[in-house]
Amino acid sequence: MIIDLFADIACPWCWIGERRLKRALEARGVEATVRWRPYMLQRNLPPEGIAWSELVEKKFGGWERARPMFAHVANAGAPEGLRYDFESIQRAPNTRDAHRVVLLAQEHGRVWEVADALFSAYFAEGRDINDPEVLVDVASRAGLDAELVREMLASGRFAGDVDATQEVADTSGVNGVPLAVFEGKFGVSGAQPLEVFNLAIDRALGGTAEAA
After folding, report:
1. What is the dihedral of CA 203, 208, 209, 210, to 10 degrees?
2. Which CATH code is given to the segment(s) 2-204?
C-alpha cells in the first residue's frame, strides 16, 4: 500500500495525524510505504522565519485568543504521547529546509524517525528549525549522518521537490494539512480519529468499508 502524506512540520495537527496513521497501520499489521509530501502552510515567510509572537498576533489575534486553541491541540495530542509547549517556541519557521531534511530521511528509510524528531524539536522543545545546525543535530539524533545532512542543506538538493509537491497540492485543491492519500485514489483530510484511518485502510485493501 502506498500512502502520500501531505504535511508541514510547523503544523501541530500534522503531528497528531501522522501518529494516528502510524498507529492504525501498526495495529492492523499493514505494511505501507508512506511518502512525505511537503506542504508549507506559511510559504510566504522569509527564509529565516519570523518571531513566534509576531505570527501569533497576525494569525490568531494575540496570546489570549490563541491559548485556548493551543490547549485544545495539546489535549488532543496527549493520548498519542505527544507533548506541546507552544510558549517555548521562539521562531515561526519557514519550513523549506526542514522538508528537505525529511525528504533526505525518506531516501534513507528514516522518514518516520526524522519527521517525529523535528515535530518534537519544534513543538515540545521550542527549537529553531530554521537553524541549519539545529536541523543537523535533530536529524543526526534520529539516525541520519550529520555530515550528509549538513552537505545537503548547503546545496540546493530537494528544493525542487518541495516546490513540485506544493504545486501538485495547489493544483489539486489541497488547502490544508494533514492529508493522507491512499493509493492515489482517495484521501483522509485532517487529524481524524483512529477509526477513520482504519476505514481508509480497509478501503485501500479492497474491503467494502467506505472511508469518511
Report:
1. 70
2. 3.40.30.10
Cβ(62)–Cβ(56) under 8 Å?
yes
Maximum separation of any 2 CA atoms in the chain, in Å: 49
The answer on pLDDT for 211 being more than 90 is no
C-alpha cell, 98? 526542514
54, 85, 160 from 141: Cα distances, Å: 30, 21, 26
Residue with cell 485493501: 205
What per-residue confidence (pLDDT) applies to 206?
85
Secondary structure (H, E, C), the chain: CEEEEEECCCCHHHHHHHHHHHHHHHHHCCCCEEEEEECCCCCCCCCCCEEHHHHHHHHHCCHHHHHHHHHHHHHHHHHHCCCCCHHHCCEECCCHHHHHHHHHHHHCCCHHHHHHHHHHHHHHCCCCCCCHHHHHHHHHHCCCCHHHHHHHHHCCCCHHHHHHHHHHHHHCCCCCCCEEEECCCEEEECCCCHHHHHHHHHHHCCCCCCCC
Q: Which three cell numbers stand for residue 156?
A: 540546493
pLDDT digits 0-9 by tens, 29-59: 999 999 999 999 999 999 999 999 999 999 9
Flag whether the pTM goes above 0.85: yes
